[in-house]
Structure formats: structure tokens, C-alpha cells
């Protein structure tokens, strides 16, 4: 049933009304269940930041001025084009990431959501996340994003120590971040996440754990812990290279992570993924789609990634798609072709299975038999891993579990997933090469 007056009042207003009534209804398209192949998550990239943080090598630009009307038009156009090419009829979540999307105007966010709701079915209770930097997200602005249709906020808090924030080149203080967090919780109760970094140069375990404990007094139901990765080309990398800052200590970082996840577990958080913790069921459904290898469309410049089968253009193979990096070039391409996709890489069946394995094992449920079967009906998880001596060793060490539910990491195994994959991926490749190929129809 469509919500009366939805189109006229816009998706955002409809979403708010529906949230108030706790009903699942929507705007464009039909609310009937769509098959997996017609559903997707949608990522929208806002490429601009106020200032370059010392550690960040994500694709972002520090512009003199932003032609926001032109950018808005292009984001809308590209979202419409990719929805058409993919043949996706139901968008289950939208994530505005960056860069710093809290610098975009709420009007732009509303325009993209309207376009999505007109080109597909966007249920009124879909998760719509916006990433916000504390320095560009006063309460009034957050409320305007809420009115535009955002219903989840991810705050880049990073640290609760002003000296560390300075080292990271952030434009906010710890008290700015806590103020933003309080305002966000008021507007999006139960739907606010914070990013906290660990393993910074010179950071001590006890001092970092005290930050985490302090954060527990203020946070909502979702926390992401990100270990600093020192990226070539960043200011922090140069400072460490030149000896101005101590090198990263991976053992200390591992201890912080280990003790941090224990603290969060005791505080009632479920570690549902390597870096992500939620309580009261506040898991991010958007990110869950990535880990479950669902379809997602990537809109916007600076390398937004997508993975989908271009059904609308007659395609049958899942493709990895990467957008043009530089925003001005991307805009030109969108104006000419309707999209700024720079690279399309068709994915082979084995490549898809490798992703299913590597992404699925990041989650606490791992790869279930049912999930695996959706991607590979002939070769079971037992066929692939059941007879391997190396895998048996990992099972005996208690790092992995293979049972009636499927394959997953244990609590002890999750932090060393990368090393487990060094055994599991070659095992998958070997089993794939030795499988009996399905008969060719008519052959
Ligand atoms: C790319 S940022 C975009 C969001 C927003 N601009 C911000 O800074 O909060 C998303 C998250 O990635 C994480 N991140 C960025 N660079 C990182 C690095 N070199 N190592 C670890 N985490 C990083 C930060 O925690 C950040 O909150
Ligand atoms: C590191 S995650 C942080 C998520 C956050 N902790 C949460 O729970 O919502 C978000 C960042 O990943 C990157 N990202 C996510 N999805 C992407 C996609 N489809 N294409 C390109 N970058 C993406 C963006 O830089 C975005 O700022
Ligand atoms: S961490 Fe966030 S604010 Fe800082 S440069 Fe990267 S994207 Fe921009």
C-alpha cells in the first residue's frame, strides 16, 4: 500500500511520518518483495573536506568553492542512471559517505533521496546514514539532515584526547565531538555511531582504554574501532619516516583491539564484524550488505565503488564498478553519459566466491551454508574445506568453526582473520579447480 500523498510531500516527509507510525511503506515503485537480484544498497560519495587530516588517504578534495547545485544535479542524474542500468527496483539502505558529507547541504541529501524514491522503491524505514564531522555538524544542521530523510548518523569522533586530535589534524576538539554526539542522540535516538581510532603513534594501552571507558558514558548503540593504518603519501607517514614520531607498534595496537572488544562485550555490545560493535540490535544494514556480498550501487566521484549485475542493460554478470576520481572530470562525464563510471570489471564465479568467503568471515555469523549455496549451489562448504588438513588444524586450534550452521571465526579467530584467509583462499581455489564442472546444456 502506498502512503497517501507521498509523492507530493516528498520522500523525507513521508519517511518521517512513517517512522512516527512505525510502518513500512514507501514512495515510488511498489512495496512487494523483490528478488535479491532487484535489490541493492546505495552509496553516495561527497568528495570534499574542509582540511586534510594527517592520516587520511581516502579520495577527497579541499576545494576553494563548491558548485553545489551542479554537484547535486550530477549526483541525482548518476543515481537515476545506475538504478536504471542495474534494474534495481528496491533500495534497502543509503549511505552518504566521504569526504565530509555533513558539509553538503541538507537540500542536496533530500534531492538524492527523492530521486532514488522516484526511480525505485525506497521503504520509509530504510537505513539512511550520513557521516558527520563534529566541526560541521551543529545540532540545527543535524536536524535539517533529519528532515531531509537521514535517520542514522556516523560521527568521526576518532579520539577523546585533544593532543591526539591535533596529531590527526582534526578540526574539532574532544568536547566538540561530545557535543555533536549528544545533539545527534537527541535527534536520532538509538541510531548514532561513532568511529574511534586506535594504535596511534605513541598511544598507550591504558590511556586508550580510559578513552573507550569514557566514551561508554556518552555513546549510543554503535561503535566502530579502526586501527590506524599508516598510509604512504600522508603527513603522518612522512613524520614517522623522518623519525619525528614513533613508528606504529602493531603489538600494542593488537592489545588495544583485544582489550577494547572485551570492554565492549562486557558493556553489552555484540561484535558483529571485525571493526563494528552494536547493542540493542543497532547493526548497520548498509554495511551488512557489503559483508554479505549483496548488490550495491556507488554514486559520486572519488572512486565510489559498486557491485551489481547490470540487468537493466541486459547484463548477466556481477561487475565491480569504480567511479572517476576527480570531481570536475566526473561531473563532465555525468553530464555527457549520465554516469561517471571509469572502470567496469566483470567478476568470475571464483572471484565472487572469494569475496563471499573473505567478506562473510568478517562477521560473527560467518558464511552460512544457506548463504554460500545462493552463490555456489554445487560445491558445498564441506566439499571445499571439510577434507583439508590445514583447515582441520585451524578448527582444532579453535580459531575456526565448521558445523551445521556454516563456517565462521571464533572469538579468538576473528582478530587473526587475515592469516586464516591465507589458508582458506588457496583451499577454495584448489577445490574450485578440482570440481566437476556442471554439464553444458545441450553439450
Ligand atoms: C574516510 S572517513 C570519512 C568520514 C569523515 N570525513 C570523518 O573523517 O569522520 C571514515 C572513517 O575512516 C577512518 N579512517 C580514515 N583513514 C584511516 C586510516 N588511515 N586508518 C584507519 N582509519 C581511517 C576514520 O575513522 C574515519 O572516521
Ligand atoms: C569506513 S566506513 C565507516 C562506517 C561507519 N563506521 C558506520 O558504522 O556507519 C565509511 C567510509 O567507507 C568508505 N566507503 C563506504 N562505502 C563505499 C563505497 N561503496 N565506495 C567507496 N567508498 C566507500 C567511505 O569513504 C566512507 O566514508
Ligand atoms: S578523515 Fe574524513 S575529514 Fe579527514 S581528510 Fe579524511 S575524509 Fe576528510
TrEMBL record:
Any single Pfam family the record assigns to this protein: Radical_SAM
Domain Radical SAM core: 34-270
PROSITE patterns to which the protein is assigned, alphabetical: RADICAL_SAM (PS51918)
Superkingdom field: Eukaryota
One example of a Gene Ontology biological process annotation: porphyrin-containing compound biosynthetic process
Location, primary (coarse class): mitochondrion
InterPro entries, per the entry: Aldolase_TIM (IPR013785), Coproporphyrinogen-III_oxidase (IPR034505), Elp3/MiaA/NifB-like_rSAM (IPR006638), HemN_C (IPR010723), HemW-like (IPR004559), rSAM (IPR007197), rSAM_sf (IPR058240)
SMART domains the record matches: Elp3 (SM00729)
Keyword field: 4Fe-4S, Chaperone, Heme, Iron, Iron-sulfur, Metal-binding, Mitochondrion, S-adenosyl-L-methionine, Transit peptide
Secretion signal, residue range per the UniProt entry: none
SUPFAM superfamilies: Radical SAM enzymes (SSF102114)
One GO cellular component term: mitochondrion
GO MF entries: 4 iron, 4 sulfur cluster binding; coproporphyrinogen oxidase activity; heme binding; metal ion binding
Subcellular location: Mitochondrion
Gene3D superfamilies assigned: Aldolase class I
Annotated NCBIfam families: hemN_rel (TIGR00539)
Function: May be a heme chaperone, appears to bind heme. Homologous bacterial proteins do not have oxygen-independent coproporphyrinogen-III oxidase activity. Binds 1 [4Fe-4S] cluster. The cluster is coordinated with 3 cysteines and an exchangeable S-adenosyl-L-methionine.
Similarity annotation: Belongs to the anaerobic coproporphyrinogen-III oxidase family. HemW subfamily.
Protein name, per record: Radical S-adenosyl methionine domain-containing protein
Provenance organism: Otolemur garnettii
